Here is the input.
Amino acid sequence: MKSVRIGAGLGFYGDSWRAVRASIERGGVHYIASDHLSELTLAILQKDRQKDADAGYARDGLPMLMELWPLAAKRGVKFILNAGGLNPEGARAAIARAFRDQGWKATLATVSGDAMLERFDELGAAGEALAHMDTGAALDTVRSRMLFANAYLGAQPIVRALEQGADIVLTGRVADAALSLAPIVHELGWKWDDWNRLALGLTVGHLLECSGQGAGGNFGSAAEWAEIPDYAHLGYPIAEVNADGSALFAKAPGTGGRISFDTLRQQLLYEVHNPHAYVSPDVVLDMGALKLDDRGNDQVKVTGAAGAPRPAQLKIVGGYHDGWMGTGMIGFSWPQAYAKCAKAAETIRTLVAERGWQIEDMNVEYIGYDSLLGANADPTYRDQLNECFLRMTLRTQDRKVADAYGRLFPWLGLSGPPYVGSMKGVQGAKELLGIWPTLVQRERVESKVNVAVEKV
Amino acid sequence: MRVPLWKIAHARSGDKADRADIGLFAWDAPTYAVLKREVTSARLKDHFKAMCEGPVELWPLDNLLALKIVLNRALQGGAARSLRMDNLGKAVAAQLLRMEIEAPADLPRLKK
Here is the structure.
């Protein structure tokens, strides 16, 4: 039976590619599907592009390829990565330049056409309201503050690039799982209305898109996390997808981590809303009959994906400026570490009130006590903590206030409660972004998607 | 007896826009039956009342011995707008594992 092996690439902008190297050298993969864009990574890339029109792509794609391409080319392994970010052509140009310098040969392709912000007027004229899909709020409440808005493309344009012989496909915003679904469809010849097989491909893509999380990383548990072998060399998952619509998950020999029923089902439900209608541009997946058959030895067989027809609309996610965050931190040692943090918080509140600053919200957290567990922190030992750090943040529309706020804290070192922790500098204002998920008729996007191929 | 979820289950959480979402997993079928009965959206809403301003959604998945939980309007508008240390909601699953439910004392994987 025909099959194709897809290896997980990066799971976020800044992830490590050491495990990808293991998948290429020892995992028998044919493709690497690498996800560099979380929901708001485009906001970071937008700032890069504002400073330099040639930037705006994920800068880890190039060094990853410089290390891995010689190994991949020798074995015929291809890359599909969304590291193009806001500027896939710019990413391609940078890679082409670097490859030429090395004398390397490759066929590079880009998929673009996901950028929607510059098309908002045209889309509005065509009758697209682009209202917030969760709250129903109207676009004009944020339009002037919108920094980027990109549609999630599906697997079809990536398949077109592969059909034209691409070895490396650079995309902007596409559905994360499309990075895997595309090579599966391309290699196994699945039809675009074969919903159950496409649903299996989507399942595979979803299980691969968070790199180490699909192989025992971040295994949320009260004790069992400590049984995950060899974190230092944790492998990334590899899926062997069969033409019959099944997949066998594994990882490269000699890597750490674990592929099991437990680690895979944690990733399966990760960042999913309704598990009976997991929507992608290419198919809607129902996870209700999926079977994860743990074969032992880090192998799990996945079958039973059920698919429904693809949606008529594509999702756009935009980000808009929503004020500034000011941050202050200070730590105290025992005795009464928590009480001293609380006194410092009260003092800072007084200073803020006396200055008459316009603020929208303030958040007070005690690191070492409740900064991760919130109201579900256990107060039993609160007053016996060895040490505690106060972290206070505020939201304001005034950047100067956010900057000035952090400078209130160092003064506490000499004029506040005793046994202060070392001050590690003052944090300046950080821009806050609101997120704007919305929907658009897919034809309006897909009619302008562009696939370009360049031989180096 | 009252049992905190960390003694009988495992969980991972993540974020999408202003939603925190959690997968809660039983180690075995008898425990799954207990989770399905005891971990209700009303209990969840109460447990997360300090952070979740919207409705709680809940789907049982018998094939995965799992509950899919979604807390709406729980991340101060979303990760890039949140003032919290845990802006991505990664520790929301740990918060859930602190929740106590009524459970039999003889569940197979009950931790001491």
In short: The two ends of chain A are 34 Å apart (CA to CA). The mean pLDDT of chain A is 97.
